[in-house]
Design a protein that fits this description.
Layout lengths: L1 H36 L1 E3 L5 E4 L3 H8 L1 H32 L6 H13 L2 H12 L5 H8 L13 H29 L3 H9 L4 H12 L1 H16 L3 H6 L11 H11 L3 H33 L1
Antiparallel strand pairs: 1-2
Helix pairs in contact: 1-13, 2-13, 3-7, 3-10, 4-7, 5-7, 7-10, 10-13, 12-13
Length: 295
């Protein structure tokens, strides 16, 4: 009897250390943030008692929050959608056999292997008006006669941040989709060719359905990753001027560590968590249901 119990308990004993570490370093801080969001918090992070969710009311009444939330939505949708499309196209190209394919794959993965701070700093250097490489290159080619200001408005700077976000996200999507493409049995394509199917019919009837799981995983992870992305925006603009390039993560960082309003920062964090949970869950449920309907 004891041996039977031990055999049943053995898998749980193996994963127990990981569960304990997750509880200490992930679950506990999350619960702490929720607790701070519902309490009055001192500048040193000490809880001063329940405040009837005034932190949420203060955040939602602030016009800056609306601007930051809009920026976050635009940032997440633009980066995720465009990087998914570009990554899918690149995966299709890299799945073909051609000379130098290994080198091409290494080049594609390079932006993902480099730290985000370095990438953002490089993009800042490229678009700099006075000494940026973009102006230097265009002037040497004779396209420009004088340096151009590539960031005349906050919206323009935010667009460059989105471009940087897409650039560093595309490799992840590419290799997720590429792994799915390489798992497809070639006999499907051979049978489709015999039946007279063209390239686009193969793409939409064979390739897309069979890599849907890879696309779903990469999209959900990208939504979480991009929504919570901090280094690119912080390195390039720090959310300036006047919060016009801030997203929720940079905004709550300012609230907590620049202004000492840690209760409000926790409230912003909880709001972001709820938005992200709803979006990711909705996408997963919709994708899975659509897959079941097709089956």
């Amino acid at each position: 009897m004891n041996k039977k119990i031990l055999r049943r308990a053995e898998p749980y004993l193996w994963i127990a250390p990981s569960v304990i570490l997750m509880a200490i370093f992930i679950v506990t801080p999350i619960l702490k943030v929720f607790q701070m969001a519902g309490n009055k918090v001192s500048r040193t992070g000490q809880l001063r008692g329940f405040n009837n969710f005034e932190n949420f009311a203060t955040v939602l009444k602030n016009p800056t929050f609306g601007l930051v939330l809009k920026n976050t939505i635009v940032w997440t949708i633009a980066v995720v959608v465009l990087s998914t499309v570009l990554g899918f196209v690149l995966a299709l190209i890299l799945n073909n056999k051609f000379r130098g394919r290994k080198i091409a794959r290494a080049i594609v993965v390079f932006p993902w292997a480099t730290t985000l701070v370095i990438q953002a700093s490089a993009w800042n250097f490229i678009i700099n008006t006075d000494y940026g490489t973009l102006n230097t290159l265009l002037m040497k080619l004779g396209i420009l006669s004088a340096p151009m200001n590539w960031t005349p408005t906050p919206e323009a700077y935010f667009a460059w941040e989105i471009a940087c976000g897409i650039f560093v996200t595309v490799p992840f999507v590419t290799f997720c989709v590429l792994s799915g493409l390489q798992s497809i049995d070639t006999t499907y394509y051979e049978a489709a060719t015999v039946d007279g199917a063209n390239y686009w019919q193969k793409l939409f009837k064979i390739t897309l359905p069979l890599v849907k799981s890879s696309l779903t995983v990469s999209t959900v992870l990208n939504i979480i990753y991009v929504f919570n992305s901090f280094p690119i925006i912080w390195t390039m603009t720090k959310g300036d001027p006047a919060n016009h390039t801030d997203t929720l993560v940079t905004y709550l960082y300012k609230l907590a560590f620049y202004n000492g309003r840690q209760g409000e920062a926790a409230a912003v964090s909880v709001i972001g968590f709820i938005i992200l949970l709803i979006c990711a869950s909705t996408y997963m449920i919709y994708t899975l249901r659509k897959g079941d309907d097709e089956l």
